[in-house]
């Protein structure tokens, strides 16, 4: 079923058929494409371009095609190039001449632009639901570990004591911003291109507002050229996906490090790890390593799309066929990560014994000691220098700050008094950091409660979008 055979005197070469077909990347669009076609049929009927009987026959025929695809009795043909022509060809087999009316007033240009938006809308709602599970698992861990005191790190060196709940909430807020990007990507695709035709609109009186209404878009697109040339909404998706994958990679990297014998702060469940083919003792964090590695695929997909778009003149160009390859790959990767990561996080254990050992040397409390001096009127830079010299002396003498006697403290820093010993407890250090967003237990509890509220709002927003899928 060649759309252009009237113009050509030769059949397409087999190598060209193989090179230009897109079934390997657009067959997943079947349901969205048929949904768009059914809306188009109703618009044609509303304009009296087809009869009521033809409308019903076309709708029933499209349902039959979808049923055949789902039950496996209809297989796509490569020589028909893409999902659109395979559906239309089968519909014409079923209905004869009536099937040929389906494409009235429509081009594959506006058809694929519409189908992509329908498809991606549903995918984003599904991904959003899984992201909600991820956010919930982080909230649960934060609430469970509020009073667990562990080392916080900068430059992979022990820096200051923190609440483990505060650590989990740091990832919660990053992923929550990603959920906002997801919602923005949904908003960006909420316009309907159907009826824009090849690029100039149509002489056939199609009601584009009705098309948008039937397909549950907020409005039709404003410009027919932009309608079929634009892939901004795909770039918005890839931006969301890229930032999300980077945040996943960072979390995975942390947990891989904290799970090592050298750190030992977290313990991963056996069921989310693998062993070695030669070393019997090994327990490898392969799931986390794969999450870290797969981020590269998603970032590559973003670059792939942008490079395709960069060199294109208006309006439609066949290069745009390639937009689906990176889209489908990134979607599969996102779903895979989101299927496994929330479950893994929920089953992580924190080893307080290992965390306590990491807090024992006392140097991690150096900032608390400097701030103790500041509250006694010592300028911060002077306090910083004094405590730095004290740390240097302790390192030379093989002592920790927490092991020093009052006499040793006064020899090092004359301004000290007995109250200094109140600064030398990691838990009290955490509890004193009550600035908004700090690691104090009370602040972490506030964050958790706010997170629960935001999670409820996210669920409502996703439910609203879900009604349009």
TrEMBL record:
SUPFAM superfamilies to which the protein is assigned, alphabetical: L-aspartase-like (SSF48557)
Gene3D superfamilies in the record: Fumarase/aspartase (C-terminal domain), Fumarase/aspartase (Central domain), Fumarase/aspartase (N-terminal domain)
Keywords (A to Z) from UniProt: Amino-acid biosynthesis, Arginine biosynthesis, Cytoplasm, Lyase
Pathway info: Amino-acid biosynthesis; L-arginine biosynthesis; L-arginine from L-ornithine and carbamoyl phosphate: step 3/3
Main location per the UniProt record: cytoplasm
Enzyme class: lyase
Annotated ranges, domain Fumarate lyase N-terminal: 6-299
Record-annotated Argininosuccinate lyase C-terminal domain positions: 363-431
InterPro entries hit by this protein: Arg_succ_lyase_C, Argininosuccinate_lyase, Fumarase/histidase_N, Fumarate_lyase_CS, Fumarate_lyase_fam, Fumarate_lyase_N, L-Aspartase-like
Domain of life, source organism: Bacteria
Enzyme Commission identifier(s): 4.3.2.1
GO BP annotation list: L-arginine biosynthetic process via ornithine
Catalysed reactions listed for this entry: 2-(N(omega)-L-arginino)succinate = fumarate + L-arginine
A GO MF term: argininosuccinate lyase activity
Gene Ontology cellular-component terms listed: cytosol
Subcellular location per the Swiss-Prot or TrEMBL entry: Cytoplasm
NCBIfam families, alphabetized: argH
Record-stated family: Belongs to the lyase 1 family. Argininosuccinate lyase subfamily.
Protein name, UniProt field: Argininosuccinate lyase
Organism: Acetomicrobium hydrogeniformans ATCC BAA-1850
Gene name tied to this protein: argH
